[in-house]
Design goal:
Helix content: 10-25%
CATH architecture: 3-Layer(aba) Sandwich
CATH superfamily: Mog1/PsbP, alpha/beta/alpha sandwich
Order of helices and strands: HEEEEHEEEEHE
Largest sheet: 7 strands, antiparallel
Shape: globular
Length: about 190
């Protein structure tokens, strides 16, 4: 089991219940939705047996051998959960799993009426791969779930990685058809 999956497992234990469902781009929205437009070239590569977590890579890469990976999760048990608290708890696990690892808040605030937190995690040498690993995380707190999107790279944070990672996270959003202050886009 690799370093990221162990960390994701620890985060799942904190959540008690994990569920994933992103809103399909071609259907009408109902209720609360996670919008996750994938960057060009990323394709589905893995999901857990219950379909509750999804990982995306750029073929011919795989979930075992990737240079960049996107992970999407929805924690249904964490309703109106503080997204910064989730990111901070993951930071503790990240630092304990990686010698010299660091984590820092990039920003927090509100987007489309939802509280959000964006964090950066850096591992200078992942003990499982013997490569550096950098991950950006965006957590969005909803009335129905906590939404988490991650963009990871097996490299140190450089402009060539930071720009696409932040561009992806900028487009990850939540919406809710039940609330005027959390409108969903028209499709």
């Amino acid at each position: 089991m690799n370093f990221r999956r162990r960390l994701l497992g620890l985060a799942s234990a904190v959540a008690l219940l994990l569920g994933t469902q992103a809103a399909p781009a071609q259907t009408a929205f109902q209720g609360e939705n996670l919008l996750t437009p994938l960057p060009r070239g990323f394709e589905p590569a893995w999901q857990d047996a219950s379909g509750q977590m999804h990982e995306y890579v750029r073929p011919p890469e795989t979930v075992e051998n990737w240079s960049r990976m996107i992970t999407i999760q929805i924690y249904r048990a964490l309703k109106d959960f503080n997204p910064g608290m989730f990111a901070d708890r993951l930071a503790t696990n990240w630092k304990s799993g990686c010698a010299g690892g660091s984590a820092q808040k990039v920003r927090d605030g509100n987007e489309n009426g939802f509280p959000i937190a964006v964090w950066l995690y850096v591992c200078p040498l992942n003990p499982a791969t013997h490569k550096p690993e950098t991950m950006w995380l965006k957590a969005i707190s909803g009335a129905d779930s906590l939404y988490v999107a991650q963009y990871a790279a097996r490299a140190e944070p450089t402009k060539e990685i930071i720009v696409p990672a932040m561009e992806f996270l900028r487009h990850v959003a939540a919406c809710d058809t039940r609330r005027a202050d959390r409108k969903c886009p028209h499709i």
